[in-house]
Amino acid sequence: MQKVAFIIPPTVELLDLAGPVQVFTEAKVQGMDLEMEFYQYSEDPVSTAGLGFAKLPNYSAAKLKEGDFIFVPGMDNDYVNSISFRAEREFFKWLKDCSDKNITVCSICSGAFALGHAGLLKDTECTTHWRRVDALQAQFPQARVVADILYVRSNNVYTSAGISAGIDLALAILEDLKGPLFTHKVARGLVVYHRRSGQHKQQSVYLDYRNHINPQVHEVQDYLIDNLSKENDIESLASLVGMSARNLSRVFKEKTGSTVLEYLTLLRREYAKTMLNNPEYTIEYIAAKCGFKSARQLQRILKD
Fold first, then answer.
1. Mean pLDDT of the chain
2. Share of the chain above pLDDT 90, in %
3. Nearest to residue 219, comparing CAs of 257, 255, 171?
4. Residue 106 bridge partners (DSSP)
5. 204, part of any domain
6. For residue 136, how far is the Cα from the chain centroid?
7. Which of 182, 201, 221 is the last residue of a domain?
8. Is residue 76 part of a domain?
9. What's the domain range around 290?
10. Would you say residue 201 has pLDDT above 50?
């Protein structure tokens, strides 16, 4: 079973921690087989908001293997600049050892400074909160610090910008692990419809076209994803959400930038491409499952 270990430092920023935690919690709800664990390296960590935590095991008790993930959330800047933080040499060494074992080490916001002290940012593209970009570059001159970006992946090191960017990073990791359709389901559960990318430039029809908050259009989009083989005429879709066909057509185009038929065709083409990876499926079977009238129509759509 894959593990995601969260290290809770002193003066942790709550959303840096809670955002990725909630993403992986929702992934478990959606059926992903993973285990989340929580550790500390200093006694009695307290968040910057004053919220304390129960007694947690020390990071040294973690049993992690290749393919697992470690998350280091951000901390108060005064603590990051303190002697006590820089003195956590055993913790920094542990991070480096984990990375050497092909365990992916991720940071949110100023958690990047821990990765820097661990030697994980040398000759590595990385980022942090925009307020701390210059400080990160100054402290670790061999790092290649990138500004104005949400997250960066360099080999098995992920770094992200501040606060809510941890959600974007966690979703990007899920997309790498489980694909865009699964990630869409997680994002939908979290009501995160605005897909934001770091250097993750691959477009996804499941995650794009969601930069709006209209619940009826979202419901139609979700229905189409789950019912590709059906007729899906505009009258039936409009009835589903209590709208007229004309009004649904207008609102859908206004909110997504695409007509219903264009969006449905994109969904069908994307799913067909996924099914084509299975050599046991005939082109006729794939066409039927995706809602195309014939294999010839599917082949024509795939060439566009």
1. 92
2. 77
3. 255
4. 71, 158
5. no
6. 24
7. 182
8. yes
9. 209-303
10. no
Task: Tell me how far CA of residue 263 lies from CA of 79, 186, 207, 299, in angstroms.
Answer: 49, 20, 12, 18
pTM: 0.73
Ramachandran quadrant class, 144 (left: phi over 0; alpha: psi -120 to 50; beta: rest) = beta
Q: Indicate whether 193 belongs to any domain.
A: no
**Exposure b/e, 257-295, CB count within 10 A at least 16 = b:** ebebeebbbbbbbbbbeebeeeeeeebeebbeebbbeee
Residue 84: Cβ within 10 Å count: 9
Clarify whether residues 71 and 172 are in a common domain: yes
Q: How large is the angle between the packed helices 215-226 and 260-275, nearest 10 degrees?
A: 30
Give the CATH number of the domain where residue 214 resides.
Answer: 1.10.10.60
More confident residue, 224 or 200: 224
Average pLDDT for 166-188: 90
Residue 126 shares a structural domain with residue 251: no
127: domain CATH number is 3.40.50.880
Residue-wise pLDDT tens digits, 134-175:
999 999 999 999 987 889 999 899 999 888 889 999 999 998
49 lies in the same domain as 130: yes
Q: Is the pLDDT of residue 202 over 50?
A: no
Q: 121 with 221, same domain?
A: no
Segment 248-289, tens digit of pLDDT: 999 999 999 999 999 999 999 989 988 887 888 999 999 999
- In this structure, the answer to whether residues 135 and 221 fall within a common structural domain is no
As a whole number of angstroms, the distance between CA 230 and CA 227 comes to: 6
Q: Judging by DSSP bridges, how do beta strands 125-126 and 151-154 pair with one another?
A: unpaired
| Number of domains making up the chain | 2
Give the residue, 212 or 246, on which the prediction is more confident: 246
Q: Are residues 39 and 125 in the same domain?
A: yes
- State both tokens at 23: 């993403």
CA distances from 61 to 7, 11, 58, 105, 118 (A): 12, 22, 6, 17, 19
**Per the domain annotation, does 203 fall within a domain?**
no
